[in-house]
Amino acid sequence: MSQESTDRTEGDLRNTGMALKHDRTWDYEIERILQAVSERNASTVGLQFPEGLKRRGPRVADDLRAELPDGVRVLISGQPCYGACDLDTEMMRRTDVFVHFGHSPMKESEKIIYVPLFSNVEVTPIMEKSLAELKPPEEEPAVGLVTTAQHMNKFDEMRAWLEERGYEVHVRRGDERLTHEGQVLGCNYASADVDADQVLYVGGGKFHPLGLAMEHPDKTVIIADPVNNVVTIADTEQFMKQRYATVHKAMDAEEWGVIYCTKIGQGRWEIAEEIVENNDSAYLLTMDEVTPDRLTNFGLDAYVNTGCPRITTDDGPQFKQPMVTPQEYRIAIGEEPLEDLAFDTFHGTW
Amino acid sequence: MSQESTDRTEGDLRNTGMALKHDRTWDYEIERILQAVSERNASTVGLQFPEGLKRRGPRVADDLRAELPDGVRVLISGQPCYGACDLDTEMMRRTDVFVHFGHSPMKESEKIIYVPLFSNVEVTPIMEKSLAELKPPEEEPAVGLVTTAQHMNKFDEMRAWLEERGYEVHVRRGDERLTHEGQVLGCNYASADVDADQVLYVGGGKFHPLGLAMEHPDKTVIIADPVNNVVTIADTEQFMKQRYATVHKAMDAEEWGVIYCTKIGQGRWEIAEEIVENNDSAYLLTMDEVTPDRLTNFGLDAYVNTGCPRITTDDGPQFKQPMVTPQEYRIAIGEEPLEDLAFDTFHGTW
């Protein structure tokens, strides 16, 4: 790694996180799982992986089966999984030991073994490159620092690296939905509520920093992406245009579907209930996965999604009918002004 | 209806079931639901509709809300639903009264109110037309008679009509998975186990009669479809070719995913467990909906679906990897001869 990775161009994935993900040996904490099986005298072990790591499932099952007593069954969850908000509760009920891989705990529970899977990609080369976008410490010493669960193992290194270069690094743990200091989720950027006008996000993709920039429009969000080897500034303009267009379309809706998501960490019952309580043309729809087909079947004019905000904002354009966040709903029915439109974040656990 | 419907061609849906479905007033048994709410002092009512009737959901909710006490919440399930095997158990747990529309009970339970929704399409015009395909009673008096849940209200009329024309009508109730005499499901044709070489299927589509013909290859299955206004003979040749091709592809598989379906009426745990017990390269995957994306993520070579057989046989070609039934799996690994290949039927309830 080192200097080499900063010489590659965007899209060149040699030795980046994407390549490493497939080459590397992760620590699946097999010993911890085996110990739980033994302690609980378990006859079934359930494994749940996020989408990108599902193909590792059979190999982890192999490793476990080689050590497990005869007759202990290993089950792998085939349900989609996009976060610690998205535990396979059906599998949790059916198995004696339930292991959730790849996300940090949203809420600790004796029923669940969380196995974090940390990226082994180097972060300092891309941070070096990000200095071109950060204001220099002599001009603006304060910088917020955030990252995602998979790079959390390098967080102290990131902070030290910035401090060595003269920055005052502002970090905080967000709210109870977040496990670690400096951690952000796709739906929660409370850890960026720091006294700094510039925030450095170190992590893969634009999914998280775009939410971050939306949630903190007063701050400049610099994206140092060690996975795709690129530094950019989060730009919310296109995103905002898309939201305005969706809200405008939703303004014509006569009948509304109000989605209550049954995923364990994605339910906002009070918000969903309040909408149907006050609108006779709003219908409460319950589901786990929120997909275009599932909504279109109901033939309603527009939908409010009280579940995962990222489905609404990121997948929304794939839906045939406008789908809005709870606040966008209030804007669409005239209860709030359009200029107040903000990113929908999710707080609390379950 | 009457003669008019027999003059139309296939695909002409005027006044057929498809048109009627959208024009008609069904009996949603609102009174029975209201009574259950009152008796149980319920604060939540859950409604589940099959896919084709989901857009009626908001109207049924309107009718209920007009009569329900203030503060009673009506929830509509957004989960896909393809049969009484496919109850929204999450909704059942969350609601005080749970109503399942459009299917006959697979298993009675105090928790569930089943509301059958019967088609109002006339059946005798298409039966008249089916006489051209049935052997005449003087040549072959015995005829089996089967239909689906939605035409069950006309079953006595169908039987009487055939008897008036000199046929000996053979009917039976299938096994415990079936509520009514003469009823078939997409996965169960035990009601056609009758002493007759010709079986008349009265009902919409080719989905059911194709399964019926596969399950009873010794019988001629005449399809009298009052919904699409067409009479045909069930032809399993194309279907069988597709199954042979899939099994052949699966013969090359080194690693297998074994799907255990978590839908209440689609679980066959013993079958799934037996496969993984005896094959170290087979992995137990649990899920509710079985979709191409969910399987492809695991990167295995082939899949055995122990859940709904119709997903395997009817949707199978949409899957990127071969997906087979449990018996087809045994053929693919050499435990059974290819010529024994039979339709996968589903018995029992839960």
Q: What can you tell me about this protein's structure?
A:
The structure is a homodimer of 350-residue chains. In chain A, strand 7, helix 8 and strand 8 form a beta-alpha-beta unit. Residues 1-22 of chain A have low confidence and may be disordered. The first copy, chain A, folds into three domains: 3-16 and 121-233, Rossmann fold (3-Layer(aba) Sandwich); 27-115, Rossmann fold, CATH 3.40.50.11840; 239-340, Rossmann fold (3-Layer(aba) Sandwich). The longest helix of chain A has 14 residues, at 237-250. Helix content of chain A is 31%, strand content 17%. Chain A is α/β, with parallel strands linked by helices and 350 residues long. Chain A has helices spanning 3-7, 17-23, 30-40, 57-67, 89-94, 124-130, 155-164, 207-215, 237-250, 269-278, 292-296, 309-315, 326-332; strands at residues 44-48, 73-77, 97-101, 112-115, 142-147, 168-170, 198-202, 220-225, 230-233, 256-261, 282-287, 302-305, 323-324. Chain A is flat and about 60 Å long. In chain A, the strands form three sheets. Chain A has a five-stranded mixed beta sheet, sandwiched between helices. Strand 11 (282-287) of chain A pairs parallel with strand 2 of chain B, so a sheet runs across the interface.
